[in-house]
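Escalation from tier 1.

The customer reports that the assembly of two entities below gives different structure tokens on two consecutive runs. Tier 1 could not reproduce it. I'm attaching the input and our single run for tier 2 to review.
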Amino acid sequence: MRAGGRRKYTTKAILSIILASVLMIAGCGDSKSSEGSGNGSESSGKSELVVTSFGGKYDEVFKKYVVEPFEAANPGVKVTLAPYTGVAKLAQGGGEQIDVVQLDDFDLIEAGNKQLLQPLKKEAFTQWDNLYPQAFLNGSDNETYGLTNVFGSWGIAYNPDKVDKPESWNDLWAPEVQGKVALMSQWIPDILLTAKAVNATEDNMDPVWEAFKAITPSVAQYYSSFSAPESLFGTGEITMAAWFDGRAIALKEAGQSVDFVIPKEGGVLIRSGLGVLKSSKNQELAQKLIDFSLTPEAQKGFAEELFYGPTNETVELEAELQKKVVYGKESLDQLLAPDWNSLLSKREDWLTKWTEATMQ
Amino acid sequence: MPRMKRFYSVLGWIAIIYMAALFLYPLANVLTTSLNDNGSFSLEQYAKVFSSDVYMKVLGRTMWIAAVSTVISIVLGYALAYFIATRRPGSQGLWLMLIISPMFMSLTVRLYGWMIVLSNEGPVAAASKLLHFSQEVSLLFSNFSVIVGIVHYVLPFVVLNIYTSLKKLNPAVLEASMMLGASGARTFWHITFPLSLPGVFAGGSIAFALAANTFLVPVMLGGPKTNLLSNMAYNATVTIGNFGLGSALSIVLLIIVVIVLVLFGILERRGHHA
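Tier 1 run:
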């Protein structure tokens, strides 16, 4: 009886292993054949450009204002959006199928410094001279590895029905918001603003870690994705959060009682940009696509639909919209643009210290 | 028959190669990464893990949350499995289907549902406000919400295991016990329960392993006080980029889970002999 049962079990196990291996082999075959056809079609004037993206509404807007005009101007080229791919994965060879990556500024600079990205040159871009100086993401060797297509500012979002308009970054520590605060997890802009608020210098960051230790019992969540505060404000779980303007204003426009303010210590400039992988076989097309994301038309679309600030000086926005997004040299220059090339060397130490301070 | 045997042993070897290539090799890779410091052998990362209060605290919390979740899952899972095993044979499949059906949906979506249920404006908070217990009830971002999420996640595995061992019970044994005058409760505690222990141990082992390794539940339902070791390993590897530390944390977690499971196995064998 027993042996019979066991044999049955083994047969099942073997069958499932066979099934799994068949599926796997089929999977490999599939990816190989698509790769093959990609290479084959390139020679006949058709090609595919793979661009990583952030998902959600961003993808929709990116398709509408960048991908579609680009495909229309380049017949035979197909742009495929791929899921977000971070530097850790790219460094492990995860970018083999990818041509263009969209990442935060510090990730693009780090990827550039790790020799994963192709330096970008002025000659390939029609919009190069129209960009604000903050839009260029240069590596430690002063090469430009990424171009920023959207700006944002990092500050405080709050629920005006529940709390007064915050003035200082220190207001996140106020007793009125105890237990109702969200900060981002392992996020250098939060660390930089806290350093300003407690007058710490980069040589002595101990007051910053003490401040994080002090605020942690009051924090509802250290969130890991930019979209997390949306639902937290929605359910009343939080009344104040470190967040950025684009998402906060989009939420406000959707009818939620939330507003955004830059504290008196200043805001941090948030940048998202595009870079071309060194391994890409479509260098020219990839750069052309980036150029498309920098046109006034595309950037206006991002400002209107996602409240992201334009990085191209020639973009004209309606007066009402100008107040909502990062717009114009003056408001841009007020934001702190982190010097990532010097910060990246401290990043590991800082984030480890941050983790230790907030684990209690 | 020998031909059949050879066929199976070939398949067995294929399975071993499959396991070695896709499981053991990556695991060995994690191990070497954790012991590697710029090309030379080093225990530095482990020293860091074991000498730091933070990591020890998180490790302790991980074990505690996993243990509590496992116990709750076993109690709930046993009740459910017993309930199902005593239904009419024809309807048991349907009940099992109901238990397993949440697994057809992404865990992210299900946990999002829990976020709504447990939030300030969710039904639990509304009921509590109605009964004037408290004005502000948020159950989210606490040990409680994390345990709720883990129990939700592992419960089907526990139910299936216990159900299987309950089904293996020989009804004649139960009949004999009743006929010899034992009460229902006595029959349960002296016959049914001991005989179903293998299922309890198997379900408990799976529950504990899954609970100790859970990553998504604390991310979604947890707050700063509920980070578990796998979250720290993720943060160390993906956000900070410290592969050595991330690997060391993973290996420590793996070893501890294996030790607990071995202890569980010993208990189970004892149970068999008793």
